[in-house]
């Protein structure tokens, strides 16, 4: 028997639930509603016109892409996400959000990473693999009132949050990030869901050049490219960027050239911009209809949206995951997303609301 090194992480509960539901579907022959996974599934992004612009025989596709990412793609990201306020040396193209977070966690020298009390389980699993300590904060007021306590640590902010889907006022959020930066607290901003809901967004432009702020972004949620595994990291710290480039090189040897060219075309060409706009419009529309429906029918767990509002691809409903599964709805118990409030969370479930409205309504009408 081989000796192994234990990772300290667990296999994703979301993946386990998905596998179980697929088996139930096969055995019963009945349709199930997959609300356990975080993929925008209202409509796909229509790429026909964009794909026609790609020459698959070109050297840019059939060769290693630049290790830091294609300069033209980084210029497009600077324009779209930072309103031209950054520069390409502050941007590193990576293999999607989880890969980006892993590179960041490896590269920063801090005492611990502070996660929100309700958090995406992959944060903890990646930190366990990297043998990095982590703790929790309850809300943004907790950060404001105990700011000195977090010096030497990194604070991770996800807004809209996964799993809750609660969105706070941007003005207050930007003020908080500036205050943490002034204290010397590292702030990791991982908010891949906001990109679906905001066009002409200047949020990153207002925080991108702060010394202690690191932004991790994914194109999976914002433009529907979950299968391409591509995103970016942004930091104004030169030495941090240098270390992250080295770690990316020896982890994956960069990001595949096709995904980079595809994203570049989506961000810079008329056909690409229209494809992104159409995808966002249709996705936002059905998400809004779904949230309003759940609220009107009394499903929404309103206690999680005090001083905030549900805005994201996830919300929490006041039904257990077992109850929803009995109605052929796949979800994840909220208890899997917290360590502090497991008892209270057990009667709630996190669901993905980025599915066709009529489909969600059809299933929940039977609950």
Describe the protein in words.
The chain is α/β, with parallel strands linked by helices and 367 residues long. It starts with 12 loop residues before the first helix and ends with a helix. It has 16 helices and 14 strands.
Our count of helices gives 16
Mean of all residue-level pLDDT scores? 95
Main sheet specs? 7 strands, mixed
Order of strands, main sheet, comes to: 2-9-8-7-5-3-4
**Through-space gap between termini:** 49 Å
Q: Roughly how many Å is the radius of gyration? A: 20 Å
How many strands?
14
Determine the structural class based on helices, strands and strand pairing: alpha/beta
Beta-strand content estimate:
5-15%
List SSEs in N-to-C order.
HEHHEHEHEHEEHEHHEHEHHHEEHEEHEH
- Helical amount: 40-55%
How would the global form be characterised?
globular
Low-confidence stretches: none
What does this entry show, briefly?
This protein has 367 residues and is of the alpha/beta class. It is 43% helix and 14% strand.
């Amino acid at each position: 028997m081989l000796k192994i090194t234990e990772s300290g992480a667990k296999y994703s509960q979301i993946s386990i639930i998905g596998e179980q539901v697929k088996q139930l579907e096969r055995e019963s022959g009945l349709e199930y509603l997959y609300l356990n996974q975080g993929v925008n599934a209202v409509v796909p992004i229509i790429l026909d016109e964009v794909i026609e612009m790609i020459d698959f025989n070109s050297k840019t596709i059939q060769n290693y892409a630049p290790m830091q990412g294609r300069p033209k793609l980084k210029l497009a990201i600077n324009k779209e996400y930072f309103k031209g306020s950054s520069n390409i040396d502050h941007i590193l193209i990576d293999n999607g959000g989880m890969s980006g977070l892993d590179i960041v966690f490896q590269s920063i020298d801090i005492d611990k990473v502070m996660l929100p009390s309700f958090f995406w389980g992959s944060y903890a699993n990646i930190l366990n693999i990297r043998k990095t300590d982590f703790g929790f904060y309850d809300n943004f007021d907790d950060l404001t009132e105990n700011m000195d306590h977090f010096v030497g640590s990194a604070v991770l902010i996800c807004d809209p949050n996964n799993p809750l889907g609660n969105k706070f006022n941007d003005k207050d959020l930007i003020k908080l990030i500036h205050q943490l930066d002034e204290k010397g607290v590292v702030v990791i901003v991982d908010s891949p869901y906001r990109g679906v809901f905001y066009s002409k967004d200047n949020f990153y432009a207002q925080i991108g050049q702060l010394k202690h702020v690191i932004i991790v972004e994914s194109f999976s949620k914002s433009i529907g490219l979950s299968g391409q595994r591509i995103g970016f990291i942004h930091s104004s710290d030169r030495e941090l960027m240098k270390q992250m480039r080295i770690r990316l090189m020896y982890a994956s040897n960069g990001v595949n050239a096709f995904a980079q060219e595809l994203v570049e075309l989506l961000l810079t060409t008329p056909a690409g911009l229209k494809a992104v706009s159409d995808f966002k419009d249709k996705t936002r529309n059905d998400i809004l209809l779904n949230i309003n429906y759940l609220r009107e029918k009394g499903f929404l767990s309103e206690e999680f949206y005090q001083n905030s509002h549900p805005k994201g691809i996830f919300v929490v409903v006041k039904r257990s995951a077992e109850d929803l599964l009995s109605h052929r709805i796949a979800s994840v118990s909220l208890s899997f997303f917290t360590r502090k409030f497991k008892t209270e969370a057990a009667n709630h479930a996190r669901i993905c609301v980025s599915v066709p409205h009529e489909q969600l309504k059809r299933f929940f009408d039977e609950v």
